[in-house]
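S.,

Sequence below, as promised.
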Amino acid sequence: MTSLSVSDTMRTARLGAKLGERPDRLLRAACASASFGSGVLGSIAAATARYPEATAIRTDQAGLTYAQLWRRSGQLAAVLRNRGLTSEDKVALLARNDVFFVVALTGAARLGCDVVLLNTSMAAPQIASITAAEEVALVLHDDALASLTAEWGAAVLGSADAMAASADAGRQPVPPPRRASDFIVLTSGTTGRPKGARRPSAGVSASAVRGFAARIPWGVRRTVVVPAPFFHSWGLAALLISLALSCTVVTRPEFDARATLEDLAASRADLLIAVPAMLQRIADLDPGDFFRNDVRSLRGIISSGSSLPPSVATDVLNRFGPVLYNVYGSTELAACTIASPRDLRHDPATAGRPAPGVRVEVVDAEGDPCPPDVVGRVFVGSAMRFKGYTSGEGKPMLRGLLASGDLGRFGFSGRLTIVGREDDMIVSGGENVHPVEVEDLLLTHPAVADVAVVGVPDAEFGQGLEAFVVPEPGADLDETEVRAFVKARLARYKVPRAVRFLDELPRTATGKVLRRRLT
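The prediction came back faster than expected:
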C-alpha cells in the first residue's frame, strides 16, 4: 500500500493554502490518488475524494457525480477484463460528447488499455481501416453510432450493453493498472490520412494543469461548458483539465450555437471551451438570443483547435467583453502559446506568448533564431508533447525542440503570430504567399461568410491563388468584386486568379479547412 510521508503531508497543506483549498480535502485527495499516480487517473481519484457528490459531467439528458463516475468506470474496467482484455490491448472509443464517453475513457484507462479516439464524423470504411491499422481489440461505441462499426467485423460493445454489464460487475474490483494508458488522438488529416498521435495519460499532471490554468481563469470547482468534441485533442484537454480541477463539465452530443448559449446562462458557467468555427456561429446569433440569456458569469472563453481569424476574435470580444483567450497548440505539442484578452484587443491575429514551461523558437532555413518580425519555422519544446505517432514516425527536431509545421514570427512585443502552415505556402512568380493573410482580409468583406485560399498550378507563375468563397445569405457578390477587394489592399501577386463560390467549406470537426477537397 502506498502511503504519504510527513513531507508529503506538509507540501499538501502548503498547496491547499496557496489554492484556497481546505487542507483536509487535499490530504484525502493525495491519499486517494497515491496508487494511481499524478496523471489522469490520479486526478480523477483525487477529485472524487475531494468532492464525491459534485457533478462531474452533465448533458441535457443525464449527469454523473464524481463518485458515480469513479464507481461506474471501475465496473466497466471489470467488464473489459472479463472479456479478456489486458493492459497490452488497445480499445477504440467511438462516442459523442456524453456521459458514456467519460465513463468509457476512464474505464479503459483503469485497466491500462491504450484508447484510440475515433472521429464521429468519419465514414464506416475509414473507421474500419483505422481500427485495423491500430490493431484495436474492441470498439466501445455510442449506440447512436452503431452503424459505423458494421464494417470492422470484430468485437464491439455498445453503450447500453456496456453500462448494463457494468452494473453486474460491481463486486469485481480492478486493481490500479501496472502501466498508464496512452490516449491515441487522430490528427485532423487535412492533407492526408489521419495519423495516431500518442498522448500519455500520465502526462496530465497536477503541476502541468496548474501552470496552464494560471494564465487562464480555470480554477477549482468551476462550471465549464465544452461543445468542442472530446475525441479531438482540444476537447479532450478541456475534459481532462476540468476533471483534474474538480470542475463540472456541461456538454451536449451535438453542437448547437443557441443551445450552447442557453447552457452558459442556465448553468451560470465560468468558462466556455470551443473552437473558432463554433465561436463564430455563437457570435452570429440574433441579439435577442443574448438578451434572453444572461452570460455575465463567464470568466473566460478559451479558443483553440484551429486558427482564430482576427474578425472572429473581434466579434467575440465585442459580444462578450474582455474574456477571450486564444491557445495556439496542436495534437503533438499541446498548448504552446496563450493570448489574453488584452493581447487580442491589441492584435486580434496574435497567438500570444509562450505558455508556462514552454519554449518557442522561430528559426530560419539554417536553424538560427529569426530577428523580430521575420517569418520562419516554429519549433516548440514542452514537457506535454506527444510520444510519437503509432506508425513509428516522428517530427523534425532542432535543439530538443519539435517542429510545429507552422510558419510564424515573434513581434518586438514578444507575441507570436502564426502566418500559416509550411505546406500551405504558395510560391507565385518567386514570391511567397501565405493563404491566411488573404483569407483574413476577405473575411472582413461584409458579404463574405467564409473563405479558403489554395495554390493551383499556373503556367506562367508556377502557382496561382484560387479563392473559395461562401457568401453571406442573400449577398450579391461576384468574382470581380472579390478580386478588386484584394487588389486594393494587398500586393498584386496576392490577388486570386480565380474565385469559386460554395455553399460551405469542407471542414473537420474542429473547423480546419480540408484543403485537399478544394484542389
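The two ends are 60 Å apart (CA to CA).

Coffee later?
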